[in-house]
Design brief:
The protein has 509 residues and is an alpha+beta fold. Helix content is 38%, strand content 17%.
Length: 509
């Protein structure tokens, strides 16, 4: 059966890239194929729309609903393969709709791909279709909203009298789609109210935008060309939503070059009391530094293999290959860690614990990347010591491989498993708990010696409860994640949420 495919034209970044130099117009758009893989009983339709994602358009002035702005044109009558053509005007309803749909579609596929989660996620709302509203109204904002199961993008007139459609920004569309995807994997985080929990949502959404910027080979080449193969400082990967940032003054009316800068040196105490979007840059900065470090390591490794490492053309080719590899490694590290985030209120330290535990589960003998990441959490004063990011792998949580399918499929078996292991999970005997639906996850980990893809399969169990710290405090939603190997039933990781919240408060005052 032929997989449905739609050819689309997408903005590579946003209007800021186009205006960067005279060649910008040539860099403005790229042609990409959207493909529905593996016969999912789906197809593309006018809108654009498909089974999991659909554009809903409104008149930007009156708010009245409009017909689908973009038509799916099959390559031949009856074919499921074709294109969403546009008129070349980036401000037309069709172009805005196709751009928002295409970037959201590719973000979802990147997130769910074998190099990331390795499975299709279930949205946090009832229903299987996420709605995209590319012209929701006049406002300097965009957001994901679970209640309306939608991504909403607004438009506004800049101080330079230019109409800015936020649905035309790759960063902003990927960011909001990232919120929806994170909500699908860790829905409890959506309702949390602590500053770090809110900032975690923002940081991950920004980092998913970085991954989508890296998805463009044209943009990777252009950034390396402009920076002379250096990812330090401000560039299209470290800067989030450049056009929006330049069009709207920052706090106090200050001019800025982007909405948020991920290349920064802020520590947690530096931003104590900051709003979540600003606080998030501590966490996103840690991971941007990690991406940059992976790139540098790969770049020098490529140069060592070359005959003339000083040759400019060879250096450019090595840098391009290194960044392409770095984005895959970074994607695995970041997105697979999301699977290990426990339910409930979370701290930045919990994120560090989940990321390192997920990486160790797959690459137990490769410590360098994890050790460097842990040190960055220390350097940013998130935790006092690298050991604060360590997590357990208790032998007592092991399960015979033949019992894993029952644990996956039976809520009763899962409840009994958690009840049996209350002590190691640190659930008080007096507290009720909830076992979430288990996740059977298979992810690509590399390439075997015979050229076949190496795969890793695990069963992920999450349990949530309300921790009661005493009569003077409110119950705190918390939880734990257990990962078990399908190969032998061993415990790959136990990540408990909120374990260092008190120590962090004591450390940072």
């Amino acid at each position: 059966m032929t997989d449905p495919l739609a050819k689309v034209h997408l903005l590579i970044q946003d209007g800021a890239l186009t205006a960067a130099d005279q060649a910008g117009a040539e860099l403005a758009r790229e042609t990409r194929n959207l493909e529905i893989r593996d016969g999912q009983n789906d197809r593309f339709a006018d809108g654009p729309a498909c089974r999991r994602l659909a554009v809903v358009d409104f008149d930007p002035r009156t708010g009245e609903p409009l017909p689908p702005p973009a038509r799916f044109v099959p390559s031949k009558p009856g074919s499921v393969r074709g294109a969403f053509p546009d008129d070349g005007d980036p401000s037309s309803a069709a172009s805005i709709a196709v751009n928002a749909f295409g970037i959201a579609f590719r973000t979802i596929q990147m997130f769910e791909g074998a190099e990331a989660l390795g499975r299709q996620v279930r949205w946090a709302f009832d229903g299987e279709q996420l709605l995209v509203v590319p012209r929701a109204g006049e406002w300097e904002n965009s957001f994901y909203e679970r209640a309306t199961r939608s991504l909403q993008f607004f438009w506004f007139e800049s101080t330079a009298k230019k109409i800015i459609y936020l649905a035309l920004s790759r960063d902003i569309v990927a960011h909001e789609c990232g919120h929806a995807l994170l909500d699908a994997v860790v829905p409890s985080l959506y309702d949390c109210s602590t500053a770090q929990s809110l900032a975690i949502h923002e940081a991950f959404a920004d980092l998913i935008a970085v991954l989508m910027a890296l998805d463009s080979a044209i943009l990777r080449t252009e950034v390396l060309k402009r920076s002379k193969n250096d990812l330090d400082g401000s560039n299209a990967f470290s800067s989030i939503a450049e056009e929006f940032g330049r069009s709207v003054p920052g706090p106090g009316g200050l001019a800025r070059t982007e909405l948020r800068a991920l290349s920064n040196t802020s520590t947690l105490p530096d931003l104590a009391g900051a709003r979540p979007h600003v606080l998030s840059t501590v966490l996103s900065g840690i991971f941007y530094d990690t991406l940059r470090s992976i790139f540098i390591t790969r770049f020098y490794a490529e140069l060592e293999k070359s005959a003339d490492p000083g040759d400019t053309k060879i250096r450019d080719q090595a840098a391009n290959k290194a960044l392409g590899t770095a984005q895959i490694i970074f994607r695995r590290l970041l997105l697979r860690g999301i699977d290990y985030l426990p339910p409930g209120e979370l701290s930045f330290a919990d994120v560090g614990r989940a990321i390192t535990a997920a990486d160790r589960a797959v690459y137990p003998d490769s410590r360098t990347l994890r050790d460097e990441l842990a040190q960055r959490f220390v350097d940013r004063k998130v935790v006092p010591d690298v050991t604060d990011l360590e997590s357990d792998r208790p032998h007592s949580l092991e399960l015979a491989p033949e019992r894993l399918a029952e644990l996956r499929d039976s809520d009763w078996a899962a409840y009994q498993y958690v009840e049996q292991h209350r002590d190691v999970l640190e659930i008080s005997r007096s507290l009720p708990f909830t076992v979430l639906p288990r996740v059977d996850s298979t992810k690509a980990t590399g390439v075997e010696s015979d050229g076949q893809r190496a795969m890793h399969r695990e069963l992920i169990l999450k349990v949530s409860w309300n921790r009661d710290d005493g009569p003077s405090t409110r119950p705190v939603p918390t939880g734990a994640t257990v990962s078990l190997s399908w190969q032998d039933g061993s415990c790959l990781a136990l990540v408990r949420g909120g374990r260092s919240l008190k120590s962090e408060v004591n450390h940072h005052g």
